[in-house]
Amino acid sequence: MFNWFRSSRRNPAHSGADGEGDAGFYSLQEPYGSAWDDADDWPRGWDDERSTHRSERFADWDDRLDRIDDHLGETERRRLPWWRPAHWRGRRKRWWAVRIVAAIFALFILIIAWLALTAPLSKSLQPIASPQITLLASDGTPIARSGAMVEEPVEVEKLPDHVVEAFLAIEDRRFYDHWGIDPRGLARAALSNLTGGSTQGGSTITQQLAKFTFLDSEQTLTRKGREMLIAFWLEAWLTKDEILERYLSNAYFGDNQYGLRAASLHYFYRQPEKLRPEQAAMLAGLLKAPSRLAPTKNYDLARERMKLVVGSMVAAGYMTEEEARRLPAPRLDVRARNDVPTGTYFADWALPIARQELERGYARQTITTTLDSRLQKIASRVVANAPLGNAQIALVAMRPNGEVVAMIGGRNYAKSPFNRVTQAKRQPGSTFKLFDYVAAIRAGMEPDDLIDNSEITEGAYRPKNAAGRYSDSITLEDAFARSSNVAAVRLYYDLGGEKIIDTARDLGVTSPLPSGDPSLALGTSTMTLLELTSAYAGIAGNTFPVKAHAFPQGERGWFDWLTSGEKSLSSRKHQYVEQLLRASINKGTGRAAMLSVPNFGKTGTTQDNRDALFVGYAGDLVVGVWIGNDDNSPLKGISGGGLPARIWRDFMRSALSGANGPVPEERPDPEGPVQPMDVPELGDIPFGLQVRNGQLIFSGDESGIPLDIVLDDEGVRIDPERLERAIEQRQAQIDQREIEREQARAIEEAARELEQQLQEAGR
Questions:
Q1: Mind listing the pLDDT tens digit for each residue in 222-253?
Q2: Is residue 50 part of a domain?
Q3: How many CB atoms neighbour CB 191 within 10 A?
Q4: Whether residue 524 is found in the same domain as residue 632
Q5: Nearest to 519 by CA among 469, 468, 463, 477
Q6: Which of 22, 89, 270, 660 has its CA 20 to 30 A from that of 312?
Q7: In which domain, by residue range, is 301 found?
């Protein structure tokens, strides 16, 4: 608007009669000094001064009009949305400078807050690797030892000068001069990498501490940027000695040794405060590639690297060339031996639980578990002798309170550490029917009550009984013993699926259980063997839910008992449930699991024999056995009432026979080689010793197979032909017994069918 005023004032076409420019508007009041505007009033010779004065007046008006235009333009820009470029156009440099400085300051504050949350200083005081934990069986026998070898942190002021100098010379010579990042080191590393020299990283000790304490090993510019920021932050809050101490106390030195103290004790059996110069130089050289340079694996490479460290110490002025030449190659003194296995199926399950309950620190821990070494050996031997073919197996034994005393998660831990007790979720099959019948008994039914056992011919879901055996009605006890599918589904319809699900939840099942699916009654939902066995433990002790645990739990007070939320059945209803479980073994599908003492259990076989199970209890042991293929393919000739029931029986016979034996003497942490608990030992085979004709003869009988080992002047001898014949005879006996059992079952089934036909004919 005002630009138009300016143009019209300067346009000759709008000039007045006196030839002077006319602005196109008139002032309401004459400004000071306007008398000079009349041309006739100017003195002679003052034309130049008059012209200059008029120019100054025009410039003053232009400035005023520019300010008005700027104000109007600013008002118009503010009305525009912030994302429009015109909103930001025309800003003064001072405006931009003030806001850029404010944004940088705010960003700095945000970075400091972010580092305080994501990289607390206390984290650099903790070991970067979990310290070693040794698990002991209940009798003190080491089961497994896992974790890093970590010792107490070092203090720089207590270390000899040659120890500190060795690390500074090879890792960061200007450590005490820079602020966490060394520009010279970065330039030197970049130049070496570009010119084809040795590859260098250029990271300072502070950056390395930031990297292995707070960051991962990702090689990206983002991680490098975070590393530099954290290095600045560490330098601002910690002293140089504190940074060096945390670095030396956490760095990895190979052979599972973390920290200078652990490495010094491992390689030279010395405290770091007593290290010799050549020993310190070798340890300092390991940091470049700890696994490859570990002197226990490649001493020559470690020695060559030590020479490079010594040369760096000479170059840095820490020692003379003469002193360097006199340094000998250090002699290793490795005394520690770890003969305890690093893992077993039980240990892999127990260790994460142990670490959750322990405070993070440098101290090594020794923890006693609930595992019974005698029962674990029995389980290993029974599983090793089972004719599994190519199938896998899982076995877990626990007390009614949930203390796990034996665990086999597969046939061979070394080949497959996958734990089929705790990790594999498979269908429980008819073992799930326990929940159906417990729900029925809780609803008021009794073992002698009748239920329809006829074929289901209506509805979308029509399950079948094994071998097509049906009847008009059947008692709850017989239906459970014979594992009637149609009876279980009718219970589902009569009770409602929610009551069965609620019963399973009360007994401790946490896996998903679909609502509205009648196949649930037959065990089509998946769960772990540990979960299923824990539910049976709740019935065994009549206190549920039971949570399986690997470590002894202290006695609970009355308040803990009051607030635990545990439930139980009345004595009569609990008796009814045990009556069903007893009938399943005495006269039902679980006859192969029969013992000479009261025993209770249930068989389970899923569709197409993909899973075969037996879960039950006797004495103070609750045991679950599962057999199946990892690819879920059908088993050949294996059902829940067959091999799983026999494995359960064999384990129980051996386990309960020594239940009243002497209590083994506890040892805190015995030394010497210990084999994994999941591998059967030679000592498990009962041998007899006798002397005959000058020969020392070890005689034994394992599962009916005679074995004689003769020791005489000729050495140790075993009669392979006799052993082979005995094995063949034993296998023939097993096959014959199996045939006889099958024939007996067929005769019994034929007799039942004939009896049923006669009854129907009589009606």
A1: 667 777 878 887 888 889 999 999 999 989 99
A2: no
A3: 11
A4: yes
A5: 463
A6: 270
A7: 133-326
The number of folded domains in the chain is 3
Alpha-carbon torsion, ordered 522, 526, 529, 532, to 10 deg: -50
Please work out, in degrees rounded to the nearest 5, the angle formed at the alpha carbon of residue 487 by the alpha carbons of 591 and 478: 35
- Asked, for residue 385, whether it belongs to a domain, the answer is yes
pLDDT digits (tens, 9 = 90+) for 44-67: 554 555 566 566 666 777 777 767
DSSP letter assigned to residue 638? -
The 3-class SS string of 167-217 reads HHHHHCCCCCCCCCCCHHHHHHHHHHHHCCCCCCCCCCHHHHHHHHHHCCC
- Look at the block and give the residue holding tokens 């440099």: 93
CB crowding 42-62: b at 16 or more within 10 Å, else e: eeeeeeeeeeeeeeeeeeeee
Instruction: Output the pTM of the full model.
Output: 0.66
Structure-block tokens of residue 18: 């006196």
- Residue 364's pLDDT is 73
Regarding whether 631 and 695 lie in a shared domain, the answer is no
* DSSP structure string for 352-400: HHHHHHSPPSS--EEEE-S--HHHHHHHHHHHHHS--TT-EEEEEEE-T
Q: What is the DSSP string of 695-741?
A: EEEEEEEETTEEEEEEEETTEEEE-HHHHHHHHHHHHHHHHHHHHHH
Cβ neighbour number for residue 87 with a 10 Å cutoff: 15
Domain-located, residue 89: no
Per DSSP, 30 falls in state: P
Question: Rounded to 5 degrees, what angle do the CA atoms 170, 172, 177 make?
Answer: 145
Q: How many CB atoms lie within 10 A of CB 101?
A: 10
